[in-house]
Recover the amino acids of this structure.
């Protein structure tokens, strides 16, 4: 077999894999269960991707689920099809259904945790809920390795709360002021491990 053909095939395969990767959405939406956007076990429209003249209602931008740009008023663009209308401005969006139901959306902020991040405890208290009122379930020693799964928000004194996994599968919520992340600084936590506060 021709070496150039093999190399070209590998490049095409890699490009196809990259195209299938799930990009971060432009907006995330509070789609409630039971609406027409709740379909096949997932909430169609929970994430929005804006592609200029089109807007995708799901992560991979299936053509059947894209809405075309239909109208513009200043900074607001409207995308609509089949009883679904989406109003998009630079910082927010909302889905409007034919029934009159309005579903709010907010601009997606990449927190660097799409696949999680390794981190360490600075003497973290682990709680059942993402706030100071959450029941204490554990206390991690200084330097205990953790896997930071997701940002739970609820900012307190400048840092967010995070769902972490530690010690062979145990999970709980930790305040970001007592965490560091390995390799890069995750927004909402104290610092990158090995760097000063």
């Amino acid at each position: 077999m021709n070496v150039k053909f093999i190399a070209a095939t590998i490049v095409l395969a890699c490009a196809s894999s990259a195209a299938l990767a799930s990009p971060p959405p432009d907006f995330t939406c509070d789609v409630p269960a039971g609406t027409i956007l709740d379909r096949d076990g997932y909430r169609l429209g929970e994430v929005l991707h804006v592609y200029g003249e089109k807007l995708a209602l799901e992560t991979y931008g299936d053509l059947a689920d894209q809405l075309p740009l239909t109208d513009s008023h200043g900074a607001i663009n409207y995308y609509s099809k089949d009883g679904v209308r989406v109003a998009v401005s630079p910082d927010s969006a909302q889905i409007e259904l034919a029934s009159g139901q309005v579903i709010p959306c907010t601009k997606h902020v990449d927190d660097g945790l799409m696949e999680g991040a390794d981190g360490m405890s600075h003497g973290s208290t682990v709680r059942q809920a993402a706030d100071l009122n959450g029941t204490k379930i554990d206390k991690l020693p200084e330097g205990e390795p953790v896997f930071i799964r997701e940002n739970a928000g609820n900012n307190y004194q400048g840092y967010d709360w995070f769902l972490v996994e530690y010690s062979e599968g145990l999970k709980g919520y930790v305040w970001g002021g007592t965490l560091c992340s390995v390799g890069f600084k995750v927004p909402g936590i104290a610092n990158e491990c090995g760097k000063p506060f």
Remarks:
- The chain has two domains: 21-107, 117-192.
- The domain at 117-192 is CATH 2.30.30.40 (SH3 type barrels.).
- The chain is about 10% helix and 45% strand.
